[in-house]
Write a structure and sequence with these properties.
about 400 residues; binds flavin-adenine dinucleotide; 2 domains; six-stranded mixed β-sheet; 13 helices; eight-stranded mixed β-sheet; D-Amino Acid Oxidase, Chain A, domain 2
């Protein structure tokens, strides 16, 4: 069996690596001509850290990433702490796997190097997929073709594979625009730099901040309920004045963070939602990661669910004939990711509600409370994962 993975993002690289380590011949087609340092911070929670540990990347992940520590939920206007979340060394012990924040480019680089060792030559840059057929025939933008016994669309939120074979419905604008910025810590006033990481919540706004790269740089993201902008891209430049216009009432620490952002280090993108797909397999083609289940960022599980999918798919293909493997993969991952998508949306609403003080007590239904950190796609038998894929359902019924 040969597998072609389309898209060398976090999910596609993890899939290619996991497949190669199972001895399955794999090629990975990526549209980019060269690998550049794009993006900013992302979260590797324990459910994904467990997979990276298994793939031999645990030590590098621990070295490159920053452990979150105690995270504060604060009032956006006053800066007062409403609640704290313990995300320190204990968390790693509780869940048996690392939790780290790191620059997307650092995680990407780790995966690229590991794949080059496990399957030299598998990554083929400069291949932008423009068409795929259910029998696994791919056409690229330069007019070349390739085929494989199985094609895995890991081509991200605007997936060509999904659009061609699965669902052509247009995504819905969520009424949210997000900004992301990177600030060298040395540019911040000392008191602001010393503040612990976490989130600031206010009606229709949410600010998230955590350190990267040993703390020398601060990563932040700001989510604002507005329909002032509607383009979905990772690379639309913005500036501090545009963002601060939405944060007139924010406390000094948040304003100082944004004001310190260097030129060219602030980007914006509109958040779009896509309904869960009714199926993940068409002929010899399946999907993975954002191509299958793009989600809003409020649970910090976007990269993690892509990494989980990759592991489950590789395990299933190593253990079963293709049809059975794909069915098992879909059962283990599709219902689960649909619920994660839904909970991400709900948590965003909770954080941006009318009364930040309401977050002081009671369940948050965040990623730890939902049990997402404990999902073990490395060791739990696949059949059990498939039957437990609705493990989130109880929580979902509660929230309606
Ligand atoms: C440039 C970029 C920057 C990002 N920055 C951040 C960030 O700062 N923080 C964060 O939390 N998340 C970021 N993300 C999103 C995050 O990586 C994903 O949500 C998550 O990791 C799921 O990964 P994925 O592999 O499913 O998709 P992605 O990581 O989006 O990867 C998709 C890959 O497919 C490739 N591709 C797309 N279309 C085609 C095609 N037609 N043919 C061939 N290849 C194709 C893309 O170039 C990309 O390499 C970024 C994504 C991208 C693409």
């Amino acid at each position: 069996m040969t597998v072609a993975v389309v898209g060398a993002g976090i999910g596609g690289l993890t899939a290619a690596l996991a497949l190669a380590r199972q001895g399955i011949p794999v090629r990975l087609f990526e549209q980019a001509e060269r690998l550049a340092e794009v993006g900013a911070g992302l979260t590797v929670p324990p459910n994904a850290g467990r997979v990276l540990d298994h793939l031999g990347l645990g030590a590098a992940l621990r070295a490159l990433g920053v452990r979150p520590g105690t995270q504060h939920i604060r009032d956006l206007a006053t800066g007062a702490t409403i609640r704290t979340l313990a995300r320190d060394a204990d968390l790693e012990e509780r869940h048996g796997a690392p939790y780290r924040h790191l620059h997307r480019a650092d995680l990407h680089g780790l995966l690229v190097e590991a794949l080059a060792r496990a399957a030299p030559g598998a990554l083929q840059l400069g291949h932008r997929l423009v068409d795929v057929t259910p029998d696994g025939r791919m056409t690229f933008a330069d007019g070349t073709h390739a085929g494989a016994d199985l094609v895995v669309g890991a081509d991200g939120v605007r997936s060509v594979v999904r659009q061609r074979l699965f669902a052509a419905e247009p995504p819905q604008f969520t009424g949210q625009v997000a900004w992301r910025g990177l600030v060298p810590t040395a540019r911040l006033p000392a008191a602001v730099a010393a503040e612990p990481p976490g989130i600031w919540v206010g009606t229709g706004r949410l600010v998230l901040r955590y350190p990267l790269r040993g703390g020398v740089v601060q990563n932040y993201a700001v989510f604002v309920a507005t329909d002032a902008w509607r383009e979905e891209s990772w690379s639309i430049p913005s500036d501090a004045d545009e963002l601060l216009a939405h944060l007139g009432d924010a406390c000094p620490a948040v304003r100082a963070l944004i004001e310190a952002t260097p030129q060219g280090a602030l980007f914006k993108w509109a958040l779009f939602a896509r309904e869960p797909l009714s199926g993940w397999v068409v002929g010899r083609v399946t999907l993975l990661g954002d191509a299958a289940h793009p989600m809003l960022p409020f649970l910090g599980q976007g990269a993690a669910t892509a990494i989980e999918d990759a592991m489950v798919l590789a395990r299933a293909l190593a253990a079963h004939p293709m049809d059975r493997a794909l069915a098992l993969y879909e059962r283990a991952c599709r219902p689960h990711s649909a619920l994660v998508q839904r909970h991400a949306r709900l948590l965003g609403r909770t954080f941006q509600g009318e009364d930040p003080a309401a977050l002081r007590r009671g369940p948050l239904r965040n990623e730890e409370e939902l049990g997402l950190f404990d999902r073990d796609v490395v060791r739990v038998p696949l059949e059990r994962l498939a039957s437990a894929a609705g493990g989130l359902q109880a929580a979902e019924q509660d929230v309606g």
